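Today's session is about reading a structure prediction critically. Students often jump straight to the picture, but the first step is always the sequence itself: look for stretches that repeat, for charged clusters, for runs of hydrophobic residues. Only then move on to the predicted structure, which in these notes is written as discrete structure tokens rather than atom positions. Here is the chain we will use throughout the hour.
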Amino acid sequence: MIFDAPTIDYAGLSPIIALTAGLVAIVLAAVIDPIKRFGPVLALLAYAVTAGCLIWQWNADVDLVAGALRLDGLAVTLSLLAVVSAAVAVLLAIGDPSETQAGRSDWLALLTGSLLGMVILAQATSMLTFFVGLELLSIPLYALCGTNLRRRESLESGLKYLIVGSVGSATLLYGLAMIYGASGATGFQAIADGLQAGDGMLSDSLTLVGVGLVAVGLAFKVSIAPFHQWTPDVYQGAPTPVTAFMAVATKAAAFAVFIRFFEVALGPIADQWDVLLAALAALSIVVGNVGALAQSSLKRMLGYSGIAQAGYMLAGIVTATQAGVDALVFYLAGYVAMNVAAFAVVVIRERQTGFSDDISSLRGLGRSKPLVAWPLTIAMLALAGLPPTVGFIGKLYLIEALVDDDWTWLAVMIAIGTMISLAYYLRVAATVWMSPADEPEAAAIDTAALPPQIAGAQVDPFDDPHADRRWYLLAPAIIAAAAAVFFGVIPQPLVEFANHAGNALSIWIS
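Below is the predicted structure for this chain, in token form.
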């Protein structure tokens, strides 16, 4: 009997191995008191090693684990965005009540577990790893949303996200099962081959219903209207470091598999699903921008903004071209910078005003704390798509890709959505710079209807007048805002970054 050991590409698997080892180290640190306090250092070290492994494999283009994973330019670039987002979340969470109440090591382990799911999802080329990565991403996030145990809003957000996320996962699983039935394969490339070889499968109702269900399941994850209902409530109720992580990292990972599944596995039937995705993108742009107009909570406004931004990015997939993918990845990278700057300032203001994320709490911020006001202002201008920011260049690339592929009406929708968004983004900037300062009022924590052991517990102090001087809070805001301006003036480095992702799909799309 001859036993042939499987060939394992340890270099290709190094990002996943590094992140898994970091997760184990963080969990073990929880039981060692002298090391427990260094949990953030361990997490940041694990993320740095993971990022180093991804950069080491920058030019890789290999199949891993019998074709279940693929490490290529798309996986590397979007995994890097997720790792950077997680590192920022670790910094923003230092001293946050959610981290102390849940336990620092437990909180960091959940965050790292979710990040591991994102890295797997970005590399998934099989329906099995697709679903495993998605659930590994989602389940820790459900728990993270409810880690601020003494705020009812946090507990509600965790429950809402769990329920809606479970519905989205079930819908997605049904869709994958139908596509498997139509194609007889689980690998993305094998699905494409099976759909082309099957007699009439390209237009079979089983295939089309499966595609629709997969689109709906992924739409839940990236907050595409009309499957966005959970987003504003969860964004507002979840601890802000968790919200910041969800807002950017989840979109990076979910759009990675969105691109790979639709452009590769479902590429042969692109003319069947492009209109569906275009309608979802247009609806998301309208719902997100109109919904944000009436919001007084900055986090809810950013939630609705994220719905509209997801619609912009989805338009890049609609084109089914490499130019569309390049534009999507470029905009997604810029979106990370815009949101990190915005949410870092929200965290600072929460520390100073006692959980208040009301836009009115920003009154006079430009005069009293300009170092905090400028990153928020730049983030709002970039999200609105005004020059000279990365948001303007990103939307320009998306519009160009759409027009070149004869989706001019969708490009017009992006322009209309951008004009609507000026009303609420500039309202924030006006509040920061043109309104007199008010005395901040600490928001009372409503302990009614909470369990007695939580309701009766002493509330952690959350009033830090020097939060804007904490480097681990201010540095992410300043660096992200500077990046949003730098790549708006000199976009070429980010263009090359995005092209590296698009080139990975060049053999499947034109």
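Discussion point for the tutorial: The two ends are 48 Å apart (CA to CA).
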